[in-house]
Amino acid sequence: MRFAIIDADGVARRTGQCPEEHLVYQLFGEGERLVLSDGPPPSVDGRSVWNEEARGFERRPMTTPELDRFRAGCLAYVDEAAEAARLSILTPGAGQAIEYRLTEEEARRLLSADAPSFDAATYPMLAAELEARGSGALTPAVLAAEILAQVRATAQGLAGIKVLRRAAKVAIAEATTEAEIASACTIAWPSPNRG
After folding, report:
1. Half-sphere exposure of 159 (CA within 13 A, CB side)
2. What pLDDT, on the 0 to 100 scale, is given for residue 195?
3. Which of 121, 139, 150, 165 is deepest in the core (most CB within 10 A)?
């Protein structure tokens, strides 16, 4: 049998389940009482209030400070989830980011040259990639084009994450109820697209 211990205001303080004959062993303090409910067990977060007429629990709305704390938590969650989504398409690490930026800059410089001539000293990151691949058939210009295509694809993925993150944060900031905030915090992040 499901039960809850409620205080004088009807707020659920403790819940449990036991055979009916063991209900007499449940302890509760002054001003508290035991109620039986067939519905799902109430939350003991101070917002589940017993409705005597309905013989069940109802959720009281959040107070303004509670709503503000909930909103702040959801905003932080969205940022954390967006970062996790970003890391599903990026390689983490500050050094890695510098390496990618330098490689991209070299690829752009090589392809923007009037008559691109390749020199390993001028393009050390591209030279390192060519050496790592070990393929004599891959030209510096083809490699540079591949790198820039990958940069564009990554930018598209990051832009998709940005729009989801920003839209959620705007919706959370404008929401006036717990349900609206919770709904705005539910985001279908893109799945990883690694090559």
Report:
1. 6
2. 43
3. 165
- The alpha carbon of residue 135 and the mean position of all alpha carbons in its chain are separated, in whole angstroms, by 40
| Token pair listed for 193 | 């697209």
For 129-143, write each residue's pLDDT tens digit: 999 998 678 999 999
Residue recorded with tokens 């510096």: 140
Parallel, antiparallel or unpaired: strands 33-36 and 2-6: antiparallel
**Whole-prediction pTM value?**
0.70
Q: Which amino acid is at 29?
A: G
Question: What residue spans define the domains of the chain?
Answer: 2-59, 64-184
Q: Which residues have C-beta within 8 Å of that of residue 89, sequence separation ≥ 6?
A: 154, 157, 158, 192, 193, 194
